[in-house]
Design a protein that fits this description.
The chain is mostly helical and about 110 residues long. The chain is about 70% helix and about 0% strand. The longest helix has 28 residues, at about 1-30. The chain is elongated. The termini are far apart.
């Protein structure tokens, strides 16, 4: 049961990260209409900065989960749940602001 929950949450997290990435690309392409709230990216990030940021986040998520699994495997599922929930909140917030996932150049 734990493995299937971990697998499901990992897939859900990466799907939400993908959507968030594409929504953030929409923000980058429309600086006159939207602003970014992530202080690491800044209010009006470039598309390249957004791409680099999400690449680093995706890699760090894997490395973090592997480290956590090695260090204390009982924390993997709660950490995945919290990360997935946070991404879900961000994606919903962006959607409510009218920010759609840009799939034009994908």
């Amino acid at each position: 049961m734990i493995l299937s929950s971990t697998f499901f949450l990992t897939i859900a997290l990466y799907i939400l990260l993908f959507i968030d990435w594409r929504q953030t690309i929409t923000i980058a392409k429309n600086p006159d209409k939207f602003r970014e709230y992530n202080p690491i990216l800044g209010k009006h990030p470039s598309e390249e900065r957004v791409d680099y940021y999400f690449l680093v986040v995706a890699i760090l998520a894997v490395v973090g989960l592997l480290f956590l699994a090695h260090w204390n495997s009982t924390w993997v599922l709660p950490a995945l749940f919290i990360a997935t929930l946070m991404e879900l909140v961000v994606v919903i917030h962006n959607s409510r602001e009218g920010i759609v996932a840009d799939m034009e150049d994908f």
